[in-house]
Automatic annotation (TrEMBL):
It catalyses: Hydrolysis of alkylated DNA, releasing 3-methyladenine. Transmembrane segments: none annotated. The keyword Cell division does not apply. This is DNA-3-methyladenine glycosylase I. It comes from Chryseobacterium wanjuense.
Length: 184
């Protein structure tokens, strides 16, 4: 019997695998949280499918999302990234990634981990929105508005409420699997 999934994930096997194995599963380790922050910031204005297809290229280009290395990227590394056809070659987003790696470590210093900081916005456990259909899933919420505002205040770039909400979905801070999805 075919599994029933959230409708957005039916495009192909890459999307199905991402939906089944990652999307909406709570993530508490800083390394994975950072990876999704970067991927989501690059997605701004593009489709998640585009980013997912380039994920391995991003992983290689950005030192496996090692924020300590990324925070120290030189102008030469930025130029190398700008020449890499396997990623999204947007200078502002590349610069934002370096900036966000630096800000990420500042938050770690203040809170002990970025995970503790970000999960405090949902009281440490996933918010279950119980959407019946895809139409019931919001693009932003009061929580994503608040988190985006706080990230901006801390100097993060490309972290508007829509990007932040997508990050919350990806890392399981919210459960937006529709009612008839087998994962629910």
């Amino acid at each position: 019997m075919e599994k029933i999934r959230c409708g957005w994930s039916e495009k192909d096997d890459l999307y199905k695998k991402y939906h089944d194995e990652e999307w909406g599963k709570p993530v508490y380790d800083d390394e994975t949280i950072f990876e999704f922050l970067i991927l989501e910031s690059f997605q701004a204005g593009l489709s998640w499918y585009t980013i997912l297809n380039k994920r391995e290229n991003f992983r290689k280009a950005f030192d496996h999302f090692n924020y300590k290395k990324i925070a120290k990227y030189s102008e030469a590394k930025i130029e190398e990234l700008m020449q890499n056809p396997g990623i999204i070659r947007n200078r502002l987003k590349i610069l934002a990634t370096i900036n966000n790696a630096q800000k990420f470590m500042e938050v770690q210093k203040e809170f002990g981990s970025f995970s503790k900081y970000i999960w405090d916005f949902v009281g440490g456990k996933p918010v279950d929105n119980k959407p019946k259909t895809l139409k019931d899933i919001p693009a932003t919420t009061e929580i994503s508005d608040s988190l985006a505002k706080d990230l901006k205040k801390r100097g993060f770039k490309f972290m508007g409420s829509t990007v932040v909400y997508a990050h919350m979905q990806a890392t399981g801070m919210v459960n937006d699997h529709v009612e008839n999805c087998f994962i629910r």
